[in-house]
UniProtKB/TrEMBL annotation:
GO terms for cellular component: membrane. This is Molybdenum ABC transporter ATP-binding protein. The keyword Transcription regulation does not apply. Gene3D superfamilies: 2.40.50.100, P-loop containing nucleotide triphosphate hydrolases. The keyword Cell membrane applies. Coiled coil: none annotated. It comes from Spiribacter aquaticus. It comes from the Bacteria. PANTHER family: ABC TRANSPORTER I FAMILY MEMBER 10. Pfam families: ABC_tran, TOBE. The gene is modC. Keywords: ATP-binding, Cell inner membrane, Cell membrane, Membrane, Molybdenum, Nucleotide-binding, Translocase, Transport.
Amino acid sequence: MTARPLDFDVTLERPGFQLRAADRIESGITALFGPSGCGKTSLLRCLAGLEPACRGRIRHGDQPWQGPGVRLPPHRRAVGLVFQDTRLFPHLSARGNLDFAERRRRGDGPGRAEVIEGLGLRALLDQSPAALSGGESQRVALGRALLAGPRLLLLDEPLSGLDAARQREIMPLLRAIPERFGVQLLVVTHACHEVLSLADRMILMQAGRLITQAPLSDLFSAPDYWPILGLTEPAVVWPGRVVARDNDWGLTTLATDAGRLRVSGINPGSGAPVMLRVSARDVVLSLEPPMATSMLNSLPVRVEALENERDGVVRVRLAVGHRAALWTHVTRQSVAALRLEPGRRLHALIRPEVLGVNH
Ligand SMILES: Nc1ncnc2c1ncn2[C@@H]1O[C@H](COP(=O)(O)OP(=O)(O)OP(=O)(O)O)[C@@H](O)[C@H]1O
């Protein structure tokens, strides 16, 4: 089933806080990112129909949820809401929680067997919520939300209560939901690494307003957004795709807008999308094509701009490959030695960091 877009233009007034938000949520996974108190949970509650004071319009595909003369109650919106504290019914087993959702199902939705298998719930069915770990509770809560037949899942910090190992366990399950179950996801998070491993695109929010929505590579690579993202070092994010695998050396070749890059430590199938980050500290400039170094990747680059920073450090913006950019820091002495100026062509040794693999 193809996902329908969710269009909204809503306001919510509270003493000392005003939410004004208009945007469109497409298929796939959209992260909603912003500082504490900026209104992320309030927006989810508005979309789910849980804020009586919410004004404006919400439309899912061709179905109005809210607008002139229309206000569907939460249970008639094809939406599921999962919070960080999973709010499972404590008196019911995991199976009982799933049964409850299935009884309240709205129209079509993923089948029970599919959900149990997809989220690895079989071994948990007879457990009571008190006996489940944080990650297991999250999986049951996701299953319960999916069985109610939503077209849109709103997840409020679904990973923040989990340790890194549990996060790694849940991440691929969340990642697979849109394609596997035909459900689009809007995920609230504070954590950049979650966004980068999980989402297709991101909405940035600040003080009750939506600042922008864009693909991750655009947002994370734009200096204007680094402060709100909490990034202290220049970096770019590139989407790539697996084009080759060298099993002898354990290396995977990725095609990116910057060119072909080889990385280790992952082994996804051919064609799989992989997200990479290249930080300024992982870029070294060389006048000649490097012949013998331990860095695997070198690309021809062109200097675009130089900006003086503090303490004799210069930030250099480089153009690379097909419309990609790259940043590095050099000393003023290196600027002179390499005769760096806009237009200068040289080579960059780079060490990309693999952020996420979407199998
Ligand atoms: N039930 C409520 N009654 C009154 N004010 C509230 C209520 N819930 C939230 N607020 C206020 O509304 C504003 C937005 O809160 P909201 O929880 O939506 O932000 P958030 O971005 O989700 O924050 P966090 O990341 O800390 O969860 C804050 O000023 C908050 O104090």
